[in-house]
Model the fold of this input.
Amino acid sequence: MNKDLTVGNPAKILWAFCMPMFGSIVFQQLYNIADSLVAGRFIGENALAAVGNSYNITLIFIAFAFGCNIGCSVIVSQMFGAKNYAAMKSSVYTSLIASGILCLVLMAAGLLSCNTLLRLMKTQEEIMADSSLYLNIYIWGLPFLFFYNIATGIFSALGDSKTPFAFLAVSSTANVLVDILFVKAFSMGIAGVAWATFLCQGISCLCSVVLVLRRLSKINSEGNIQIFSWKLLKKIAVIAIPSILQQSFISVGNMMIQGCINSFGVSVAAGYSAAVKLNNLVITSFTTIGNGISNYTAQNLGANKYGRIKEGFRAGLKLVWCLCVPFCLLYLVFGKYLLLLFMEQSSATALMTGRQFLWILSPFYFVISAKLMADGILRGEGAMREFMAATFTDLILRVALSFVLSAWTSSAIGIWCSWPIGWTIGMGVSVWFYRRKLPPSP
Done:
């Protein structure tokens, strides 16, 4: 059901809107977590390292899909808030066509260059073949990734966060079961892990696109509806391109960091692979709630209700901090047992690596969550230069400090310490920009 985010108590509206989004991203992350879990438990430590190694490259493709999601979602939110339904529908159709073309280009580039990227990350020879196989199958499923993200962005723009949650709950649960079936029953190895994701994400994509098109057909609109509009594409691109660049550079930065991690051996890479999946579950959850804040901000900006934006930031901050507490305690106290889910026959080095990573990062979830809420406001307002500046401050610091501190400490602990430093300074920059760019109350 569509939901107008420009009326009602901001705190109640955001909690009701964002909590299903949080649930959705938890299930979304199950795709990646299931791949690593099944690879580590049923294939071996090398397979776990291979999936983790490939994951950093898949993040580049996810960055493009995420950018398309955000660009479409913000513009559709603004049109929906302004009750301009003809332009809203044109924005949707334009996004679908442009994203499809971009996806084909990325597929071609990915299939031609994935082995080169793996070697640039100093991928060990013992996991090279599995990493390459996993990546190639993943790339063939990119259309499902792109169109699914566009569909969820449209649902969110219309104020509906429950429908994507339902799709993800079913498909992610199915992915876990199919992962195990392909690997254990059919002995497909790392290929089974990749094909399970391909199959389940494909079905979820087709269902969500069909439903979103049916939803749009029921909205009455006046005026000319264009199947493709260069004018609207430009508006979408203004939001999408900085988001793509942000996520892409983060992915490239993570690949550079992965290369540094790989220099410490397969066991350290495997421990990091397990721990970073747990960490990304939290960070991606906060990012998704930040996307909800963007939709909220965009709708209220379209309706010229500027006073509600500041209230939305405070409500979003309370929401993510409430989520920080259980995640932080869970990783600090039970991190060992969560990591063991990924490692049936883990080495002591792999397990200690994962525990150290979680111990160092999890207390700083309160910091990064505040940054992501401020980023959500900036993106919803279209303040993309400020958004990019805050993002690059965090990224550049993390990448540079990973190499400096790991060399100084002669261990991977130096790499883990770079995250909190980058997060803290990046948060300060994001909040400062948010306060400076906040529209005045009428």
In short: The two ends are 30 Å apart (CA to CA). The chain is about 85% helix and 0% strand.
